[in-house]
Write a structure and sequence with these properties.
Blueprint: H1 2-52, H2 54-57, E1 68-72, H3 79-95, E2 98-102, H4 109-122, E3 126-129, H5 134-146, E4 150-154, E5 165-168, H6 172-186, E6 191-197, H7 203-219, E7 223-225, E8 231-232, H8 237-250, E9 254-259, H9 264-273, E10 280-284, H10 287-296, E11 301-304, H11 307-322, E12 342-344, E13 347-349, E14 354-356
Parallel strand pairs: 1-2, 1-3, 3-4, 4-5, 5-13, 6-7, 6-8, 6-9, 9-10, 10-11
Antiparallel strand pairs: 11-14, 12-13
Length: about 375
């Protein structure tokens, strides 16, 4: 009987040992799905970040002739953006890329936004945009990048988190100072002035205006801006002309104007017709368009950069991103003033300002 009991005990112990040996792999198998779930969760957590940078990180293997880059400019039919189209067309000719420019009639932000939406639906490779209202365009730009479309803005310093890169042809703070310095010189350091911008939603225009106001307040206390915020002229010469006449009527002792938009010709026309070349005008302008006003003193100083060059380089950046090339601080692009750009995150700042007066209006480096 003792032998039987002993045998039973031995058998039970053997079964227990065997069960213990097989339990370990079972535990290991159970851990595998857990690890897999953890990895999946990690991948899921990283997915949004990967999606946000997908456009910047994916290099295309397309030939240039099969790549489409579209510039969506602010306003159809005005001199500034007609010149930008020259640069975009030149980029297409130089590279073989299908690059072209479109823009809304009247500079309508809603129409511009719809143009971007249409390009997303078409599945173009890159969208370059000079936004009229950058903030309202953010959802569409995010949508484009999620679809793998490269997005490059120009004059969009307030949407850096929603584009692959933003190109500024100039330092906006310095441009504001230039407005202030030149206006103060032309006004002999005293008097009232009025300022125009394209739209209050155009951040660079507002930065130039604010920079000028701040510079004048600090250095020329006898110069006064007549309104707490600038007038809007919608980048339209006719609107600028009409508003300038309103200002002249309401404030006959006005001594100066600035216009951040390329609509200073409208103000100059108003001053010319009223024989008020004694009033200073410092404006963003295209030399070929403003030349007659510069010559007769209806406009004193023009500030700009070459829109064609900015259009060219914006498309050049888009192509480099599409090809997977690194965008880095100090790199050179193919236009004057863009030979050594500053890159900080997604912000690219060049040094391509042009200041023209009667003295240098027809210089080869200035006139276009």
């Amino acid at each position: 009987m003792k032998k039987v009991v002993s045998l039973i005990v031995v058998v039970l112990m053997a079964v227990a040992i065997f069960a213990g040996c097989t339990a370990a792999p079972a535990a290991s198998d159970s851990a595998a799905p857990a690890a897999s779930e953890s990895a999946a969760a990690s991948e899921s957590a990283d997915a949004p970040a990967a999606s946000e940078s997908a456009a910047a990180g994916a290099a295309t293997d397309k030939e240039n002739k099969d790549i489409t880059i579209v510039m969506v400019a602010k306003h159809e039919g005005i001199t500034w953006f007609d010149d930008m189209r020259i640069g975009v067309d030149q980029f297409a000719a130089d590279t073989g890329v299908n690059a072209y420019q479109i823009a809304p009639e009247g500079g309508d932000p809603a129409k511009q936004l719809q143009m971007v939406e249409d390009l997303i639906a078409q599945g173009v490779d890159a969208i370059c945009v000079v936004p009229n209202d950058a903030q309202s365009m953010i959802p569409a730009l995010d949508k484009a990048r999620e679809a793998g479309i490269v997005v490059i803005s120009h004059e969009g310093p307030d949407i850096l988190d929603h584009v692959d890169y933003d190109l500024e042809a100039i330092d906006n703070a310095e441009q504001g100072k230039l407005f202030g310095e030149n206006l103060a010189k032309q006004m002999d350091g005293k008097g009232k002035f009025a300022s125009f911008v394209g739209m209050l939603t155009m951040v660079p225009h507002m930065e130039w205006w604010q920079g000028a106001v701040d510079y004048l307040a600090e250095n020329y206390p006898e110069i006064e801006c007549i309104t707490p915020e600038p007038y809007e002229d919608k980048n339209d010469n006719q609107i600028a002309y009409d508003k300038a006449l309103e200002v002249l009527k309401a404030t006959p002792d006005i001594k100066g104007f600035t216009d951040s938009a390329a609509s200073g010709a409208g103000i100059a026309q108003a001053l010319q017709e009223r024989g008020r070349q004694d009033i200073a005008l410092v404006s963003t302008a295209v030399p070929s368009q403003a030349g007659a006003y510069i010559e007769d003193g209806s406009m004193d100083v023009g500030l700009c950069w070459r829109p064609a060059d900015a259009g060219y380089v914006t498309c050049e950046i888009a192509l480099k991103v599409l090809k997977g090339e690194e965008i880095k601080d100090g790199m050179a692009f193919d236009k004057a003033g863009y030979e050594k750009v500053a890159v900080d995150g997604t912000a690219i700042v060049a040094n391509a300002p042009i200041v023209f007066t009667k003295d240098n209006l027809h210089d080869e480096a200035v006139y276009f």
